[in-house]
Predict the structure.
Amino acid sequence: MADQYILTEVEGSVAVLTLNRPDVLNALNIPLMDQLIETMERLDGDPAVRCMVLTGNRKAFAAGADIKEMAEASVVDMYERNNLARWQRIQRVRKPIIAAVSGFCLGGGCELAMHCDMIIAAESAQFGQPEINIGVIPGAGGTQRLSKVVGKYRAMELILTGRFFGAKEAYEMGLATRVVPTEVYLEEAVSLAKEIAERSPMAVRFAKETVLKAFESPLSEGLDYERKMFYMLFGTEDQKEGMKAFMEKRKAEYTGK
């Protein structure tokens, strides 16, 4: 279908979501974002799925937002559309999301990758927040997330110049989880997703939630939150199974309960 902007494939407990606007380098328009968020929320509620991989194609993860949707908009238009508010729904997805990035990952595409929990970068990946070159700034979290990850001074240079940076530099700055050959970038992301999917679903969700808390809270508040999450896991069947399997020297069989 011409309007099928998100392709979904589920293999075992891992779902692979592919951005599907290759003719425009996967530019993020409103219909694509709506489909992406709806798909993520549906999979988040599917107990058979334990981890997601979000990808594009070798040429582009996503080269940015669809400028045609915004070029003639007024302040009132942008305020009334409130399109960027929908991105908060991605933040509320409880299951881990791994971005598999090859080629261009720019502007809104870079912000989308940063909404994910891990980024596997192909050697061909090119990151950047070039909004300054068209008279605006990042609006879907780019100034905030990039600053949190790479620090004030690097983020300032990258955002104020809009320059692109490669996978190696992204890894050195802490933005990319791994850099792998372009030929296997998606395979590596799926492999990592399968490894995570073998863990206790409850523990994985709690761990994700607690790590994200570290970016939003003072250390004392984060430590208190971590301690509460740790204690709560002792009310799960997975905790009992995991520790019993460890003592019995066998592989745990987690049910997500």
